[in-house]
Design a protein that fits this description.
This protein is an alpha+beta fold.
């Protein structure tokens, strides 16, 4: 050979001086200076392996041992611990411990001595493997080569390569091999399951900062490889190459727990930025970090530079070539986001790849699992921009259930072929662009969009001044009613979809079957399924998201008690026009109707086997009042139950026993025998401040501290009932304040306030939402509801459902808040029996009155419709 082992050694030593910034190109360049071909590189790397093996026996043994014992990570654990002061203690300790001594691999299985062949992708590209091994050896991220297994119990998993570009490969340590006895199989799901941010959150950030907002991004270099593994797990990470043994000392690409482990660091970095350095909008997926700031502002660039400086201090390498300075058009998570025209775009090469796949599948009867998974992956990626398309992924995914071997053939069913056909026809005409959706769901009522179907007559639809009406074609005359109800909905969207494009539409229907079919976007009926596909095809074309909600059908003429309490008597209903009947049946809000129905259910339970006839007997009503009183119900609650009985009698135009003297006196007796004083005291601003200060002493988890602080401040400043913010029962999940109903307002890059749209609240007789505006309190940051809510939203990062959810997506219950309040109130030395969830609302009213607000203004702020407000104002409590 022209090049001696000493030349190899000298070259490697020269490169090792710059190991921290080593790239494959630099390594190849250094080796190229010795005039070696790729084959010679391989040969001499083998010589280097042998030289390296013998080198430990010759000299500098102490230095070699120190290198082998050193944790192979550039991250400064001490500085990281300083930056994480105030962070969740368990997570902080895990990170610091991990960077000091290595992270646990969380393997719970039983390892066995195994050797296996490397994958074909590696053996067919040996030069790439040698190059990667040399680089990783110089960075001390792998140990080896060894002629013999370095541990008594040593698990070897195969190597593989995945192409990244024409000349680059991603090095994979396949810990999922073999399927029956792999390392990944021994890692429990809780250590590998991880939820990522999404393009939806990026869109929300862009919308919150407004048109032409600034966006920037950067990327952590060698992300997984800066995470060291604890030494006790080294024996699980073995591999062999060309007859020598090696093992990984850092998190390998191929470990099921790798994403979650690195995500723990990423989440902590985002917390540092948002909590300590007050960054603006921020999002991340693993090693990709996005920053969003106001238009024509330096905030975005400041946040980017602060993050880079933070990473430099901590020793976290940044990939400079992937850093993008503030701009209005950026590609993030594979999607191009344009804040100038507020739209997302799929890359053209992705569209072409999807088109080619769909064209291929449309001609196939069978495909392999690997091929089907590839198509599903592409379509799932497309759904980040084309949301309605998710409906046509479900049946394709179902085909993969129970199939594990990548080369196993799967027959494409008729239904899946139809779904592929819809995708193909859409993608062939899709330009890759999707305008951002509006935040709010628009009901079909608000769009003046109405459809109806009569079983034997025909169907009709109206939208504004446009309309259609037809008799049923003969081939549809005998179909089920669900099909007939669905037909005009689909037709309306096909005719008028272009007028409501880029919106989220909520269809209101009194047919539960239709509601379920629209929401699930699937059914077993062939005809209905054809209609579903046409509905989704239109939604794809016009970028419309849709769902349906069931509304009870009003059955005029019914006198059934306890089922339809909002109906008219047949003795005069025939004299009323449809408009009059509609007005009468709309007199009660949905919540009041539900409450009245519960009253009749209680009455039926109380009377037991007694026959109920209308009008009710005087004794039945009086005894019912007595029963409710003995159960401990408050006089106001009992009175509302009696109002429910009265309402039905009045609607049926029959004698009302609840108006009799005896009943009125029974209700008065309930009031006289019940203490009138409300024991609940107001949570004043002073008490609220004390609660906020002492939260860390009572609540252990930082995320729970932020969650409760946000609930407390929003409840107080917005005059909220606790039941309007947190869930009391599963039935109320959709009736509390929702994530999509908050909108932050900015002025010159400064957060000025937040608009909260409350759609369901007590005494909402108009059934219309109200908007509550909370102003930021820059002079009192600790008790500022706006900045606290903003920090909460950016920490918890959920986009839909109730505003207040835990980090795992579970809604926050009223019971959870009550329990934490009880502990906190006790800790600050107050009586927990006197301070309940309603104390925030009482405190808000009392505080407003003490500041000189008029009763009329307080009544408007707190959404009171009566003089009940006066019971809430407790000025004496402030004086005390």
């Amino acid at each position: 050979m022209a090049i001696h082992n000493t030349t190899i050694k000298t070259c490697i030593q020269t490169v090792s001086k710059h190991a921290s910034s080593l790239t494959e190109e630099k390594l190849a360049t250094n080796l190229a200076h010795t005039s070696m071909s790729a084959t010679t590189v391989k040969a001499h790397t083998q010589d280097f392996n042998a030289l390296n093996t013998n080198h430990s026996k010759m000299h500098n043994r102490t230095k070699r041992c120190q290198i082998r014992n050193k944790i192979p990570s550039p991250v400064n654990a001490e500085l990281l611990e300083e930056e994480l002061q105030g962070y969740d203690m368990n997570l902080r300790n895990m990170l610091v411990q991990g960077f000091n001594f290595g992270f646990s691999f969380n393997f719970k299985g039983t390892p066995s001595n195994e050797t296996c062949k490397n994958h074909k992708s590696a053996t067919e590209n040996p030069d790439a493997v040698y190059l990667k091994l040399a680089k990783e050896s110089l960075s001390v991220r792998i140990a080896g080569p060894f002629k013999e297994p370095p541990f008594t119990l040593f698990v070897c998993s195969p190597l593989g390569l995945v192409p990244k570009s024409d000349v680059k490969f991603r090095f994979i340590h396949d810990l999922s091999f073999s399927k029956d006895d792999s390392i990944n199989l021994g890692i429990p799901m809780e250590y590998s399951a991880v939820s990522y941010d999404s393009i939806d959150n990026v869109v929300q950030l862009v919308k919150s900062y407004g048109q032409s907002c600034q966006m920037a991004k950067t990327d952590v270099e060698n992300a997984f490889r800066i995470i060291p593994i604890q030494k006790s797990d080294y024996n699980l990470l073995g591999f062999n190459w060309n007859g020598f043994f090696y093992y990984d000392k850092c998190l390998p690409m191929g470990a099921s727990s790798a994403p979650k482990t690195f995500e723990t660091l990423s989440v902590a970095l985002q917390w540092i930025m948002q909590s300590k350095y007050r960054s603006g909008g921020m999002s991340h997926i693993l090693d990709d970090f996005l920053f969003v700031g106001p238009p024509q502002s330096q905030k975005c660039n400041q946040d980017l530079q602060t993050f880079i400086q933070l990473c430099n201090r901590l020793g976290i390498p940044i990939k400079k070539e992937k850093t993008v300075l503030p701009t209005t058009v950026i590609t993030i998570y594979g999607i191009e986001v344009d804040s100038n025209i507020m739209e997302c775009r799929l890359p053209q090469e992705k569209i072409e790849k999807i088109q080619a796949k769909l064209h291929e599948f449309s001609r196939r009867k069978k495909v392999t699992l690997r091929q089907l998974q590839s198509l599903i992956g592409l379509l799932n990626f497309a759904c980040t921009v084309v949301c309605p398309g998710r409906a046509f992924l479900r049946r394709l995914i179902d085909l993969t259930i129970g199939v594990s071997h990548p080369c196993h053939y799967i027959r494409l069913t008729r239904e899946s072929k139809a779904d592929i056909g819809i995708w193909k026809s859409f993608i062939d005409h899709f330009n890759g662009k999707s305008v951002f959706y509006a935040d709010k769901w628009l009901s079909s009522d608000s769009l003046s969009l109405y459809t109806d179907a009569a079983g034997s007559l025909g169907f009709a639809g109206v939208m504004g001044y446009k309309w259609f009406a037809m008799a049923w074609p003969k081939h549809l005359e005998h179909h089920q009613i669900a099909t007939k109800e669905m037909f005009p909905i689909v037709l309306a969207l096909e005719l008028w979809g272009e007028h409501i494009q880029n919106t989220k539409v909520l269809f209101l229907s009194d047919n539960m079957a239709v509601v379920q079919i629209i929401n699930k976007q699937t059914c077993k009926d062939i005809i209905l399924m054809k209609l579903v596909r046409r509905l989704v095809a239109v939604a794809l074309k016009y970028n419309i998201l849709f769902k349906a909600k069931h509304i009870p059908e009003s059955t005029e003429g019914s006198t059934m008690v306890g089922t339809k309490s909002n109906t008219c008597s047949p003795t005069f209903v025939g004299d009323l026009t449809d408009e009059a009947k509609h007005l009468i049946n709309s007199a009660l809000t949905p919540s009041t109707k539900a409450s009245y129905q519960k009253t009749w259910q209680k009455l039926i339970e109380f009377l037991g086997h007694q026959q109920i006839s209308l009008p009710l007997q005087l004794a039945q009503v009086a005894n019912f009042i007595g029963n409710l009183f003995t159960k401990g119900l408050k006089p106001a609650t009992i009175a509302s139950h009696i109002s429910a009985l009265s309402y039905v009698h009045k609607m049926l135009n029959i004698q009302d026993p609840t108006a009799l003297f005896i009943i009125r006196k029974a209700l008065k007796g309930c009031e006289n025998l019940t203490p009138s004083a409300d024991a609940r005291l107001p949570i004043t601003k002073a008490i609220l401040d004390k609660m906020i200060i002492n939260l860390p002493s009572v609540v252990r988890l930082h995320v729970h501290q932020l969650l409760l602080k946000t609930i407390f401040l929003v409840a107080f400043n917005g005059f909220f009932r606790l039941g309007e913010l947190v869930v009391r029962s599963k039935q109320s999940i959709g009736r509390v304040l929702q994530r999509q109903d908050i909108l932050f307002t900015w002025e010159k890059g400064i957060l000025k306030g937040v608009e909260l749209t409350l759609r369901f609240f007590k005494n909402n007789k108009t059934n219309k939402p109200v908007t509550i505006f909370l102003s930021a309190l820059p002079s009192s940051p600790r008790i500022c509801p706006v900045n606290t809510l903003y920090a909460f939203v950016n920490t918890f990062k959920h986009n839909t459902g109730p505003l207040f959810q835990h980090t795992n997506g579970q809604y926050v219950s009223a019971h959870f808040v009550a329990e934490q309040m009880k502990k906190l109130i006790t800790f600050i030395g107050l009586n927990p029996t006197q301070y309940k969830g309603h104390s925030f609302r009482i405190g808000a009213a009392t505080n407003a009155a003490s500041l000189g607000y008029s009763e009329q203004l307080i009544q408007k702020l707190g959404r009171w419709n009566s003089n009940a407000l006066q019971r809430y104002i407790r000025i004496e409590s402030i004086r005390m």
